[in-house]
Write a structure and sequence with these properties.
By secondary structure, the protein is mainly beta. It is 3% helix and 47% strand. It has one helix and eleven strands, in the order E-E-E-E-E-E-E-E-E-H-E-E. The strands form two sheets. Strands 2, 4, 5, 6, 9, 10 and 11 form a seven-stranded mixed sheet that branches. A four-stranded antiparallel sheet has the order 1-3-8-7, with no helix packed on it.
Length: 129
């Protein structure tokens, strides 16, 4: 059974940094894709970024490019979302999700939540003064 567990959410001030972790169990990390999504109050779920673990390629939504980075530790079966220069509009519940067998077109469909097989429970990030 595949499980994803996020952690690291916190309340921080604008401009600060935060690292979220997503621990994956029940499946090998080598060939899957892990996506990060977020959902702000009253809004739909938005794709933040994705990593294809088969080759390490990453993709990000425009609003976080240059500020957020996805990294992986295969030995720990963990994928990280490193967030810097946080803004109030980054406030949301952040989720990680897995595509067990990414298609060759993953770079163009990574932000479609319907592509993902399993989801974590989410972790709250609040950016405020």
């Amino acid at each position: 059974q595949v499980q994803l567990v996020e952690s690291g959410g916190d309340q921080v001030q604008p401009g600060e940094s935060l690292r979220l972790s997503c621990v994956v169990s029940g499946v090998a990390l080598n060939y899957c894709a892990i996506g990060w999504f977020r959902q702000a109050p009253g809004k739909g779920r938005e794709g933040v970024g994705c990593i294809d673990n088969s080759d390490g390629n990453t993709w990000y939504t425009a609003s976080v490019k240059g500020r957020f980075t996805i990294q992986r530790d295969r030995a720990k079966k963990t994928v990280y979302l490193d967030m810097s220069k946080l803004k109030p509009e980054d406030t949301a519940v952040y989720y990680c999700a897995i595509i067990k067998y990414p298609p060759p077109t993953i770079g163009t469909v990574w932000d479609s939540e319907y592509r993902y097989d399993d989801w974590g429970q989410g972790t709250q990030v609040t950016v405020s003064t």
